[in-house]
Structure formats: structure tokens, C-alpha cells
């Protein structure tokens, strides 16, 4: 959390030597002291008492001792814990798991994997991927989009005992958020336990592993048959810039992703790709070309199935209003929760023996 021992000790009314002994397992804490530390660090008390999901632990164990955890590590662990709690408590809420696929060893295998993934999502060889978070949720991958800051990673994913979760940095532009989901879906299909992607599509080395997954993400969002036909038609009639605006809008990708995909398929040269990267869709484009503007995964964005499960637990009074808000990652407040019906007076006997 970026605090020194002295800062934390002063905040929770402990001496620094005492806190040092606590960290080294020499001195015990009272429940009140532990609660103060948890409150100061913005964590629930059980974070100190219950083991994290196995994938998180295995990831943490490969880090340098004492290395600061990135923001995304902290948030994704919280989400994994909360999802597992809801899965355990709400029998109506369940996640499916898909059979892991083999790692692609070539560009052709990456493209084939993307085609199989589109079929899995119920898409044909031409149509755009609409509401990608909803589609991958049907395959067991829950997508959360939260503001993490410009300096944080683009995305991370965790494979749970059933299904998985993906956390996307909500501070990315919408096209990049969708690309990040597609990239994390690849990790999910490959059954990668825990992965953090700091910056997507930064490398041009087509032989690197992350570059292959970047290509998978582009192929998932920009299917060869559909986008090639649209691109050629628009380029012939409207010119390079308008073709880029039309294609990027139809498939809901950013210009950088479009340019890379056009290069993948040999539809443009590097000079044209450079021009496309510099294109910006204007308000006039939206009006004159009758474009549909969307803001998918606008932060904060939680999976609808997960929100419904939390509300069921709240309505059943399995969790308190404060705990429901906590499970909803503080994206709701207690005033947003539905009112609960008053219990009849004789309901007291359900609680008192």
C-alpha cells in the first residue's frame, strides 16, 4: 500500500518495534488491533486469516520478496475472493468451465483458435462481437472493468475452481477495453492460472507468446471474412480514412488494432497502416456516416449475473447491506439497494429458540 512501518504503526496506535514483531510472527495482535490495521489498509479482516485463491498465491510466490504489489494484483485478488464467496453462498449462481485448448504454435493455429472461439461464442465468420463481456460470461469468464489508473496494467485474469474472472483497466478507451477482454479470453481458454498483461500489442515480434495472443484477440474481434469484405468495399468507394472509420466503428475496435489486423491479413502496407493509426473519428463522422456509438465496459462495470447473485444474498439476508456493497466492490451504495420487507412480529421465533 506504499506505507512505511512507522506510518502504519502510528495510524493504528502501535509502536514501530511492536509492528515489526507482529510482521515477524513474534508478537500477537488483538482483534481490535487487527481490525484497525485492516481498516487502515482498506482490507477486510479475513484477508489476513484466509488463504487467497491458489492461482494468486502461486503468482505471488514467484515475485521478488518484498516487491510492491501492483494495483491490479490487489484488486484482482479481492474480486477472486468475493466471487468465490458468492459462488459458495448462492446456489443459483454458477460458472461453467470450458475444456482447455492446446497452445497455438504458429500464426495459422492462432487464427484457427480464434475461429473456434467465435463458434463457441455463437458467432459466424462475419458478424462483429457485440457486448463481448456478456458473451464470454456465458462461457464462465466474468469481466469486471474498474478504473485502475493510467500507470496500471491493462488487464489480468484468474482461473478459478469453476470458471474465471478478468479485470480490465477501465481507464482504457473502449476499443482497448474490448481488446483486453478478448486477450484475457485467450488466457482463459488456455487455462492460464493467473496472468497480468501490462500493455497489449506493444511488440511487433510475431513469434513472441504475447504477440500470438494479441493476434488471437484481433482475429476474434475482426474476423477475416467479414472485415475483409467491409474494408475492400469501403476502401474502393470511400477512400482510406472513411474506410477506417467505418470498419473500426462496425467492429468496435480502436484504430491501432484495426491497422495491425489489416497488416496481419496483408490488406494494407506499413505506410497505410501508419495513416490509419492517426485517424480519429469525429462528431461529423458519427452524423454523416450514421455510426453507432457505444461505451462498452464503461467503468465501473460488473457482470450482471454477479450483481443479481449479490442482490439475492441481500434479499435473503444472507449478507448485510454493508457486506452487499462490499461484494459489489463499492460500485453501489446502501441507498441503491432495494428495500427489504418488514418481517412479521412472530418471525422473531425463527431466530430465538
TrEMBL record:
Pfam families: HTH_3, Peptidase_M78. SMART domains: HTH_XRE. SUPFAM superfamilies: lambda repressor-like DNA-binding domains (SSF47413). It comes from the Bacteria. Residues 2-48 form the HTH cro/C1-type domain. This is HTH cro/C1-type domain-containing protein. Transmembrane segments: none annotated. GO terms for molecular function: DNA binding. Belongs to the short-chain fatty acyl-CoA assimilation regulator (ScfR) family. PROSITE patterns: HTH_CROC1.
Amino acid at each position: 500500500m506504499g506505507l512505511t512501518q512507522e506510518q502504519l504503526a502510528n495510524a493504528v496506535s502501535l509502536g514501530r518495534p511492536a509492528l515489526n514483531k507482529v510482521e515477524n510472527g513474534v508478537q500477537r495482535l488483538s482483534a481490535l488491533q487487527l481490525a484497525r490495521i485492516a481498516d487502515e489498509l482498506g482490507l477486510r479482516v479475513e484477508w489476513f486469516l484466509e488463504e487467497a485463491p491458489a492461482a494468486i498465491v502461486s503468482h505471488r510466490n514467484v515475485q521478488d520478496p518484498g516487491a510492491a504489489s501492483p494495483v491490479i494484483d490487489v484488486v484482482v485478488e479481492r474480486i477472486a475472493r468475493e466471487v468465490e464467496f458468492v459462488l459458495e453462498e448462492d446456489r443459483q449462481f454458477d460458472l461453467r468451465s470450458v475444456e482447455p485448448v492446446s497452445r497455438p504454435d504458429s500464426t495459422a493455429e492462432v487464427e484457427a483458435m480464434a475461429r473456434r472461439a467465435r463458434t463457441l461464442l455463437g458467432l459466424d465468420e462475419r458478424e462483429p462481437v457485440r457486448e463481448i463481456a456478456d458473451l464470454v460470461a456465458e462461457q464462465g469468464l466474468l469481466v469486471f472493468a474498474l478504473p485502475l489508473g493510467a500507470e496500471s496494467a491493462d488487464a489480468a485474469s484468474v482461473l478459478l475452481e469453476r470458471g474465471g474472472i478478468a479485470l480490465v483497466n477501465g481507464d482504457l478507451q473502449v476499443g482497448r477495453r474490448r481488446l483486453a477482454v478478448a486477450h484475457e479470453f485467450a488466457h482463459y481458454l488456455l487455462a492460464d492460472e493467473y496472468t497480468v498483461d501490462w500493455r497489449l500489442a506493444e511488440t511487433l515480434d510475431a513469434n513472441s507468446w504475447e504477440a500470438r495472443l494479441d493476434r488471437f484477440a484481433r482475429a476474434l474481434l475482426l474476423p477475416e471474412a467479414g472485415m475483409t469484405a467491409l474494408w475492400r468495399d469501403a476502401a474502393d468507394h470511400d477512400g482510406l480514412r472513411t474506410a477506417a472509420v467505418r470498419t473500426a466503428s462496425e467492429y468496435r475496435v480502436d484504430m491501432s488494432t484495426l491497422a495491425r489486423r489489416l497488416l496481419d491479413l496483408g490488406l494494407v502496407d506499413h505506410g497505410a497502416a501508419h495513416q490509419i493509426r492517426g485517424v480519429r473519428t469525429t462528431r461529423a463522422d458519427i452524423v454523416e456516416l450514421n455510426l453507432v456509438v457505444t461505451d462498452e465496459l464503461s467503468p465501473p462495470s460488473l457482470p450482471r449475473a454477479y450483481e443479481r447473485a449479490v442482490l439475492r444474498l441481500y434479499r435473503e439476508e444472507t449478507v448485510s447491506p454493508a457486506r452487499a456493497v462490499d461484494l459489489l466492490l463499492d460500485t453501489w451504495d446502501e441507498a441503491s439497494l432495494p428495500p427489504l420487507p418488514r418481517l412479521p412480529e412472530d418471525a422473531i421465533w425463527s431466530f430465538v429458540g
